[in-house]
């Protein structure tokens, strides 16, 4: 997969896996990753699907309606890519912390739904429930931050709450942060995620 890798200054730190939103690319979230942890490794990936020229991590049938078959195939592809990247770049596979926004947060959520111990922690900005009614692996104590907007029409509040409940029921240690706005990532949300990361990872 198209990506960029930046070796961090501190080899004891996690590797931040950055997954952009629809229409983004591997450069978009590098500033965000550096803000969260300036000395961690960064692995930032571009989604392999194009929707009217806009990169995404999986196909959708309509806004907010996922192509579940493609989601499964792309989730597996991304999981394999992360494993291979850990091998190639010699970072600790057990210390990958994902930071995803919107479409990137949705595939990150599906990775958590599909694979046990896939991440050391997760920061999910404006995610939805990737799939409903499925069994999710246990993840005792895995720290997860969910950022949500009270007026996010793309991702209704009930979706954020349901995702929190599913992950919590699987044993994750979830913090759900709300802002008053829509689907956008705000400075306050980023700063809250940064403080949360310092405490939990
Ligand atoms: C998705 O398709 O993943 C969600 O609708 C969010 C987005 O617009 O990317």
TrEMBL record:
Keyword terms of this UniProt record: Hydrolase
GO molecular function list: hydrolase activity
**Signal sequence region:** none
SUPFAM superfamilies from the xrefs?
alpha/beta-Hydrolases
Q: Where is the Dienelactone hydrolase domain?
A: 75-191
Name of the protein in question: Alpha/beta hydrolase
